[in-house]
Specification:
Helix content is about 45%, strand content about 10%. By secondary structure, the chain is an alpha/beta fold.
Length: about 475
């Protein structure tokens, strides 16, 4: 029968070894070889299981997740190579090291074609098998990082990790982030849209002991309710229509790192129960599978809603709310720390100019004053978008901020005043900007028109209207 051996090695020790939270299955019909491999790997891995045949190993895989299989080719019953082919056909994506005492070149080629990660001849020494396992772990780590990178880029967002601002509000937020990052507790980030919840989540990850692990962001609102469970926890082959092969979930890819659940209030109630069970047991069960996979993931959740109100309305589980709210951080809206706007403007210009391939904008004191008067309902994201649009168009169109009534200052009088001021001086601002661009290219109107994104004829007409040389 299969034998599973677990060692209470601490996560810190495993990380030091370089093989954090790995599970290994040894399949060999020789008892001495099984005992040797188990004894060698137990101090270095989370769990080590053993089986004497492919049939025993297959039974064990139905209820246990395995990252690496060390598989003997010569087994009673089904041989190792044919079983490996079956595993790959069934969607097993883990690493496999084939070992044998009798091999030739044809056998080695067949093993690699079947999907083996490595091929080792018996007898082998401890350093040889450990190096093979290390190489497999490194390949698996790179594969996970590549998947996480593709998943992140598919969201279409690029997030700079630096928190900007020197106001008392931002200083208090930064101090909290530094304190909370050092612990492993679950964090709940609350705040309006655009306040930078993912930015803070990344900072918590980067400043934590998990910084070398993956940071996996998940937008719960963008996933269909039918697929989100599979995306998070993975699924077995045939678990539902279209599941032609097994697939690991985002919890697995976040192993040793941080899983950021953005818009967590959008999770369906049945999935909230599954998430609660995962947080309590630190194990996940892929959809349609009997396997229980231990996970070592820090959860950071975020929402722009009040979870207390969602709980009261019956749309969010109270027990999950309290489980997520171990540490709660509320992010301030931009209107509460407007003194940080000049720093944010310069940061966004410096960040976006080289990406867009355009010259930086020079923001005048009058333009900056308009930005300080505005109430920023879209918070820092709205300011970021304004700067990006302005860099593309070549001018800071502050009048666009006041184009919709009531979006600006907190009082109707100041909104009206700001709107009138912005509309009245828009031509003056445009004139100043065109003069600045012309000066920067020594009066070359063709080059200036290209930088401004307008035709030379339009530029010449403006210059004639304003008597610009």
């Amino acid at each position: 029968m299969p034998v599973t051996t677990n060692t209470p090695t601490s996560p810190t020790e495993k990380t030091t070894e370089g093989w954090p939270f790995w599970s290994v299955l040894v399949v060999d019909d020789e008892l001495g070889m099984r005992n040797f491999l188990v004894k060698t790997l137990v101090p270095r891995c989370q769990s080590v299981s053993s089986a004497s045949s492919a049939e025993e190993a297959a039974a064990l895989l139905r209820s246990h997740h395995v990252d690496l299989i060390i598989l003997d080719i010569s087994l009673p019953g089904q041989d190792g190579v044919s079983w490996l082919k079956e595993l790959r056909d069934q969607g097993f994506s883990g690493e496999v090291i084939l070992i044998t005492a009798f091999a030739d070149l044809d056998t080695a080629i067949e093993a690699l074609r079947a999907g083996a990660s490595d091929f080792i001849l018996k007898p082998f020494r401890v350093p040889q098998i450990l190096n093979a396992v290390k190489h497999c772990h490194e390949r698996s780590r790179l594969s996970r990082e590549n998947y996480v990178l593709k998943h992140t880029l598919s969201g279409g967002k690029s997030v700079n990790h630096q928190l900007i601002g020197h106001s008392p509000v931002m200083n208090a937020l930064m101090n909290t982030v530094h304190r909370v990052a050092a612990v492993n507790s679950t964090v709940l980030l609350q705040g309006e849209s655009g306040t930078g919840k993912e930015l803070v989540a990344r900072a918590l990850h980067d400043l934590s002991p998990r910084a070398q692990g993956p940071f996996v962001p998940v937008n719960c609102a963008s996933m269909s309710p039918e697929l989100i469970e599979s995306e998070l926890f993975g699924h077995a082959k045939g678990a539902f229509t279209g599941a032609t092969k097994a697939r690991d979930g985002l919890f697995y890819y976040a192993q040793g790192g941080t899983l950021f659940l953005d818009e967590v209030a959008e999770l369906p109630l049945p999935l909230q129960a599954t998430l609660l069970r995962t947080l309590e047991d630190l194990k996940i069960r892929p959809v349609g599978s009997e396997q229980l996979l231990p996970v070592n993931v820090r959860i950071i959740a975020a929402t722009n809603r009040s979870l207390k109100e969602e709980v009261a309305a019956g749309r969010f589980r109270k027990d999950l709310y309290y489980r997520l709210q171990v540490v709660e951080i509320t992010l301030p809206p931009l209107r509460e720390h407007k003194e940080d706007i000049p720093d944010l403007v310069q940061h966004f210009i410096a960040q976006l100019s080289p990406v867009l391939g355009v010259a930086p904008l020079a923001i005048s004191a009058t333009e900056l004053d308009y930005l300080l008067q505005y109430d920023w309902p879209g918070n820092a994201r709205e300011l970021h978008n304004l700067i990006e649009r302005s860099l593309i168009l070549g001018a800071l169109n502050v009048s666009a901020l006041y184009s919709v009534g009531g979006r600006g200052s907190t009082s109707a009088e100041s909104t009206a005043a700001a709107t009138e001021l912005a509309t009245t001086d828009l031509h003056t601002l445009e004139k100043q900007h065109i003069r600045t661009v012309l000066d920067s290219v020594q009066g070359d109107k063709t080059q200036a028109a290209q930088l401004l994104g307008i035709s030379r004829r339009t530029l010449e007409r403006r210059c004639a209207e304003w008597a610009l040389s």
